[in-house]
Amino acid sequence: GRALFAANCAPCHGATGSGTALTNGWTAPPLFQSTSVQVAEAIRVGPGLMPVFPSQVLTDEQVNDVATYVQRLREERLDRGGNPLGRLGPLAEGIVGWIVTLGLLVAAARWLGRRAGE
């Protein structure tokens, strides 16, 4: 199910199923609240901008595999990124890390400067 999800669903819904922004203000919704039936129906019907995946593209067994994998994402929230800081994204989280680190370095330098003056 994971390989099928990565190939067919992750480009829009994200690798963790958390949803992403699409073009023209559209978004691919997060899948954490979706049931297996809703996932299977969405694959076959293709609501909104979502493409339709007929049985010639994904067999019923493959649809079940994808739905099972989405349930696993829902249950385990497979996010191996450590502390996500509210899912701001890697750039914003990196900037926060740099700012905190630089702030600690400045505080340490000031503390050492005061001690040297004593």
Plain-language structure description:
This protein has two domains: 1-80, Cytochrome c-like domain (Cytochrome Bc1 Complex, Chain D, domain 2, Orthogonal Bundle), CATH 1.10.760; 83-118. The chain is built from five helices and two strands. It has helices at residues 2-8, 10-13, 36-45, 60-76, 90-117; strands at residues 20-21, 27-28. The protein has a two-stranded antiparallel ribbon with strand order 1-2. The radius of gyration is 22 Å and the shape is elongated. It starts with a helix and ends with a helix.
Low-confidence region ranges: none
Provide the number of structural domains. 2
Mean pLDDT, to the nearest integer, reads 84
Strand content: under 5%
Helical stretch tally:
5
Proportion of helical residues: 55-70%
Specify Rg, calculated over alpha carbons.
22 Å
Secondary-structure element order, N to C: HHEEHHH
What is the total tally of β strands? 2
CATH class of the largest domain: Mainly Alpha
**Largest sheet descriptor:** 2 strands, antiparallel
Q: What is the end-to-end distance?
A: 66 Å
Order of adjacent strands in the largest pleated sheet: 1-2
CATH superfamily of the largest domain: Cytochrome c-like domain
CATH architecture of the largest domain: Orthogonal Bundle
CATH topology of the largest domain: Cytochrome Bc1 Complex, Chain D, domain 2
Overall morphology? elongated
Return the structural class: mainly alpha
